[in-house]
Amino acid sequence: MSKKTTNSNRKWKVNWTTDKIMSTSALFISVISLIALLYQSYLAREENKLNQMQQSASVLPHLNQWFSDYNDEFKIIIGNKGVGPAFIKEVEFKLDSTNTFNNSKDLIKYIFRNKKILESVPYVQSTIVKGFVLPANDFINVIEVSGQDNINRFKQVMASTPIIFKIVYEDVYGTRWMLSNTEGETNIPFQLE
Question: Which residue has the higher pLDDT, 5 or 66?
Answer without folding.
Answer: 66
